């Protein structure tokens, strides 16, 4: 084999090696491009997922804030309604309280009422001796019905007539006036107690109004508002 043949074979080998190198380089380049694209896609998807999660988190926060604000507004509205209802009910009680002031103006009917209140108190106390307090303005009427009240109680309870001691030192407060609108007052009635003071029966008109009002409050609310608010 002469030099020309050797040179030719070397050139062929060089071309072959170069071709293989170029093909390998192309394969590496393509593979690198694919890996780059894959990695780029993964980064893009990861970032997109992160953005979506952040959006969902903020969306939930907005929804929670919206629900809280709605709940607060609803509660505030409900409180306003309840307050308005209470104001109306209280105004009715105040109006009824003012009407009580006229009861004692009708002497005959009030005298009969005082006797009934005393008898009722005696039946609840069931004591042989009691202390009675009334308004100073009612003292005459109270003393005028004491004997008949004691006898009626004795007949109903099948006992001896009790001793009733009228307190002439401490009287119940008088009816309210324009000058004393916010002080203690009493629209009428009596307070009876055991002699030792351990049992007290408050049978004033104001106390009776409180009892009746508490008892009838659910019915009053149903009539006014169509439902009972707890």
UniProtKB/TrEMBL annotation:
Molecular functions per Gene Ontology: proton-transporting ATPase activity, rotational mechanism
Record-annotated membrane-spanning stretches: none
Record key words, sorted: Ion transport, Transport
Top-rank lineage group of the source organism: Eukaryota
Record's keyword annotation contains Cytoplasm: no
Keyword Hydrolase: no
InterPro entries xrefs: ATPase_E_C, ATPase_V1_Esu
An annotated GO cellular component: proton-transporting two-sector ATPase complex, catalytic domain
Similarity comment text for this entry: Belongs to the V-ATPase E subunit family.
Name of this chain's protein: V-type proton ATPase subunit E isoform X1
Lineage: Eukaryota, Viridiplantae, Streptophyta, Embryophyta, Tracheophyta
């Amino acid at each position: 084999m002469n030099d020309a043949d050797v040179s030719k074979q070397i050139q062929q080998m060089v071309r072959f090696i170069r071709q293989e190198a170029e093909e390998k380089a192309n394969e590496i380049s393509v593979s690198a491009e694919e890996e780059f694209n894959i990695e780029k896609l993964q980064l893009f998807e990861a970032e997109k997922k992160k953005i979506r999660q952040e959006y969902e988190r903020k969306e939930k926060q907005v929804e929670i804030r919206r629900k809280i604000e709605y709940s607060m507004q609803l509660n505030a509205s409900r409180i306003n309604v309840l307050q308005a209802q209470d104001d109306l009910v209280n105004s009715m009680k105040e109006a009824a309280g003012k009407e009580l002031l006229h009861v004692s103006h009708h002497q005959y009917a009030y005298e009969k009422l005082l006797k009934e209140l005393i008898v009722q108190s005696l039946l609840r106390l069931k004591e042989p001796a009691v202390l009675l307090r009334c308004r100073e303005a009612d003292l005459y009427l109270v003393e005028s019905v004491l004997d008949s009240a004691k006898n009626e109680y004795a007949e109903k309870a099948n006992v001896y007539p009790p001793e009733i001691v009228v307190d002439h030192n401490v009287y119940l407060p008088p009816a309210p006036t324009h000058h004393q609108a916010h002080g203690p007052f009493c629209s009428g009635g009596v307070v009876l107690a055991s002699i030792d003071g351990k049992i007290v029966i408050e049978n004033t008109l104001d106390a009776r109004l409180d009892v009746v009002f508490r008892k009838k409050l659910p019915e009053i609310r149903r009539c006014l508002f169509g439902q009972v608010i707890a």
